[in-house]
Amino acid sequence: MAQWFKNSFIVAVLTTILTVLTDALAAYPLARMEFRGRKVLLVAILATFLMPYELLIVPLFLGLSKLGIMNSYFSPIVPALANAFGVFLFTQFFQTIPRELEEAATIDGCSRLGFFWRIPMPLSRPVIVTLTILTFVGSWNSFLWPLIVSNSDTTRTLPVGLATLVGGLGMSMQQGVVMASAVTATLPALLVFLLLQRYFIQGIATSGMKG
After folding, report:
1. Which partner for 31 in 43, 44, 51, 91 could form a disulfide, CB atoms 3.0-4.6 Å apart?
2. pLDDT (tens digit per residue) in 75-125
3. CA-based Rg of the chain, rounded to a whole angstrom?
4. pLDDT, tens digit, for every residue of 48-74?
């Protein structure tokens, strides 16, 4: 179980960090830059909300198999590196930042990427925390995809490991072990939410604003 716990922690932390960075970088041009097809692209990204995740399992499995990263830490991380909800949150927030700040930074010789790291990202802490909570909890509790791509204890995450524990030992014989393991599995996600809930509420409220 210690190995499963370690695997889940590594996968959840890496998924969270990379997802926040990817979504922020994708949202910035959609919110701050003018280019042909920008609104169409944003609508297309948001339309992925309507696509069932189960529809993507086979293409993702085949793609990761060709890349040779099955049964590794990368297999549960790569498909979750970006999501439409995170892009939407960052886009809504970035639109509230006055353009005068960007114009002043440009006059002072700051590049667009430099402005991105110095102004929008520090100001978007509530959005970052919101996405961090949702991504971490979602990754920590993910079951179906890790079950498909992990077939050994070296890469198996905690939810999948617990299911194996129940199937292997039998609920009637090891109820105490299973219940204690389930409680332990919920603690990290619960702790993350309790520590960051104040910023979570603020981030949800902020994402509804539009400048």
Report:
1. 91
2. 888 888 888 889 988 998 888 888 888 888 888 888 888 888 888 888 888
3. 20
4. 888 888 888 898 889 888 888 888 888
Q: What is the DSSP letter of 70?
A: T
Return d(Cα 75, Cα 96) in angstroms, integer: 36
Q: Are 106 and 162 spatial neighbours (Cβ–Cβ below 8 Å)?
A: no
Contact (Cβ atoms closer than 8 angstroms) between residue 151 and residue 141: no
Tokens 């695997």 map to which residue? 7
pTM of the model: 0.80
C-alpha span between 101 and 48 (Å, rounded)? 32
d(CA 197, CA 141): 18
Q: E strand or H helix at 135, and its extent?
A: helix 125-141
Could you give the count of Cα atoms lying within 13 Å of 155 in the half-sphere of its Cβ? 17
- 3-class secondary structure, 148: helix
The amino acid sitting at 62 is L
Angle at CA of residue 89, ends 87 and 90, nearest 5°: 65
Identify the CA nearest to 72 among candidates 143, 156, 9, 1. 156
Q: Which helix (H) or strand (E) holds 196?
A: helix 175-207
What is the number of other CB atoms lying within 10 angstroms of the CB of residue 134? Answer: 20
| 167-170 LR contacts (CB < 8 Å, sep 24+) | none
Q: What is the DSSP string of 71-116?
A: TSTHHHHGGGS--HHHHHHHHHHHTTS-HHHHHHHHHTT--HHHHH
